[in-house]
Amino acid sequence: KELFKIGEYAVPTSQAVIGGIIAANVLVFGLWRMSSNVSSLSRMHHNFLHYPQSGRGLPLLGATFSHMEPMHLGCNMFGLYSFGPMMAKALGPETFMATYLAAGAMSSLGGMSAKLAMGKATPSLGASGAVLFLAAVTAFLRPDAEFCLIFLPFVPIPATTLLTGMVAMDLAGLILRWRRFDHGAHLAAVAAAYVYVHWGGLACANRFQAQCVAEWRELKRLLKQE
Q1: Is 46 a catalytic residue?
Q2: Are 193 and 140 within 8 A, CB to CB?
Q3: Is 50 marked active-site?
């Protein structure tokens, strides 16, 4: 369906999916703000922060929806709203959600691997890996497109130029051990996007989506016959 109904209102399904992801991020941000005692903070750290040496898999995904600072949340959600709707419309809501969650988990895994290799124990959080995956896929599919940075909204930058600059910055940050951003997660996101576009990932997603639609239609046909 192209439209998703909320009561008397109808919005494009792609925007409804992105709105749901943003709402989930805002909810987790609110939980961080409301966690004022040791017990609640412990639960948040346990589920929404990923520690490299924890050995747990669930926080790889939980951290993708987790932000502690308003600026961090705002920048990532702005990026998600910029790149998400086009991808959600192209892939369909189900395949997009699967792709987004997988991208978030893989970028978290990449950041964890980089930290373990460097002997770091600092935790990770944030949707930047998943959002950067969407931006990189857009850049690989439409290299002639132009992006605008949130801090320079009136200066269009070619997609390939911006992506190359971001990769160079993250490589420098990884080598020089800058601590401000999770450079390993960002590089893993770009690598995953490259595989997704150029090594058959997108084609597999399209085949999976077509198969799901065909099986759903067959199921509905069988149910009508009963």
Answers
A1: no
A2: yes
A3: no
Q: Do residues 10 and 4 make contact, with C-beta atoms less than 8 angstroms apart?
A: yes
**3-state SS of the chain: helix, strand, coil percent to 5?**
70, 10, 20
Catalytic residue among 124, 128, 183, 198: 128
Q: Are 51 and 59 in contact (CB under 8 A)?
A: yes
How do residues 86-143 score in pLDDT, each as one tens digit? 888 888 888 888 889 999 999 999 988 888 888 888 888 999 999 999 999 988 988 8
Residues in the chain, total: 226
Tokens of 75: 């920048």
Q: Which candidate in 45, 67, 183, 186 is catalytic? A: 186
- CA distances (Å), origin 210, targets 12, 98, 152, 184, 216: 20, 14, 39, 33, 10
Cα-Cα end-to-end distance for the chain: 25
pLDDT at 152: 67
Sign of the alpha-carbon dihedral angle for 110, 78, 13, 139: negative
Amino acid letter, residue 226: E
User: Can you tell me the mean pLDDT for 47-68?
Assistant: 89
Contact present, 64 and 129 (Cβ < 8 Å): yes
